[in-house]
Write a structure and sequence with these properties.
This protein is an alpha+beta fold and 319 residues long. The protein has helices at 2-8, 11-26, 31-38, 42-50, 57-67, 69-73, 94-111, 133-146, 178-185, 216-231, 252-266, 269-277, 282-289, 293-302, 306-310; strands spanning 80-87, 165-169, 194-198, 206-210, 237-242, 245-248. It contains 15 helices and six strands. Belongs to the short-chain fatty acyl-CoA assimilation regulator (ScfR) family.
């Protein structure tokens, strides 16, 4: 059975598995230890090493990053690569990632004065430190206070100006070609929301590429989420072409934090609590703050107000 499974694996994957096993053995790492280092689950990594099925591109990218110079020794590597913050579902298709990769190169060339070389990912090896719920709430409240907003004031992210960050909208972009626009606004529209592309190695200058085919309510939370990725110094997603296929990495902890911060900034805690206690519905709260009812419901759940929101009464029965 194992022989048959190895036969269906292509040459790239065979070399990748061999290289990973050699380096892991050389460094005395267990599969579980390597799992913690590269961010691939133990069960998935064990299956990859046994040759049971093909690793997805997320796993390939992470393993190639870990292999470093060993990848070159085994004639493995990326055909193309870009570092971005990428807001989309984990299941974005290879074609969508490929198209966004081309767009990232175009945006760097346009905004980085003709230099389309890939900035280094300075924070790629940094530890992901998720924030507690209360820390996230306090961070959002401090941000609103810095903007001079009162506790109940709405915020429109399109009125925000963030130093050294340019916002480029898909349909009005002057540097994205017509074919790329048609793909990203058509078949791929539902697979991505935005990407933030660093323009230099220090990552202190950015362009946010926003999918303006979505509703304005979704665009608001998307844009604010990208700002929070940048302002929080989050690790960049890597999108790459490997062995003829395109894929990307995905870190759920930092995606969660950025989305939470965006929702908490748009929908302030005290205001949501007050409106729920007054019996205001999600649609009313959403209209007040320019967001979607779905975002309001997410916020209500995160604040522990869902039972009050839906009017579920609880009581103790008499023994």
């Amino acid at each position: 059975m194992l022989i048959a499974q190895w036969v269906v694996m292509d040459n790239f994957e065979e070399k990748l598995v061999r290289a990973v096993r050699e380096k892991r053995d050389r460094e005395g790492l267990s599969i579980r230890a390597l799992s913690g280092i590269v961010g691939i689950s133990f069960s998935t990594l064990a299956r990859i090493e046994r040759g049971e099925g093909s690793p997805d591109n997320n796993s390939k990218i992470r393993l190639l990053e870990w292999l470093g110079a060993d990848a070159d020794k085994h004639q493995l590597g990326f055909d193309q690569v870009a570092f971005v913050h990428f807001r989309a579902g984990k299941g974005a298709s290879s074609g969508t990632v490929q198209t966004l990769l081309r767009a990232a190169v175009c945006l760097r060339q346009h905004y980085a004065e003709g230099d389309a070389s890939e900035p280094g990912n300075a924070s790629a090896d940094g530890e992901i430190i998720p924030m507690s719920k209360e820390e996230l709430e306090q961070t959002a409240e401090a941000f609103r206070k810095d903007l001079g907003l009162k506790k109940n004031d709405p915020l429109d992210p399109f009125h925000l100006s963030v130093d050294s960050v340019v916002v480029e909208r898909l349909r009005t972009s002057s540097c994205i070609d017509a074919k790329t626009k048609r793909i990203l606004a058509g078949p791929a529209c539902g697979e991505w929301s935005a990407m933030s592309v660093p323009l230099n190695a220090d990552q202190d200058s950015w362009v946010v590429f926003l999918n303006d085919c979505h509703t304005i309510e979704r665009q608001r939370v998307t844009l604010l989420e990208e700002y929070w990725h940048i302002l929080s110094g989050h690790k960049l997603t890597k999108i790459a072409k490997i062995a003829g296929a395109f894929g990307r990495t995905y870190d759920s902890a930092e995606e969660h934090d950025a989305y939470f911060l965006a929702s908490a900034t748009l929908l302030p805690r005290d205001a949501v609590k007050r409106m729920v206690s007054e019996g205001k519905g999600a649609a009313h709260i959403a209209a007040t703050y320019g967001t979607s009812p779905e975002l309001v419901e997410y916020r209500i759940k995160r604040l522990g107000l869902w039972r009050e929101h839906v009017g579920k009464k609880v009581s103790l029965s008499t023994p």
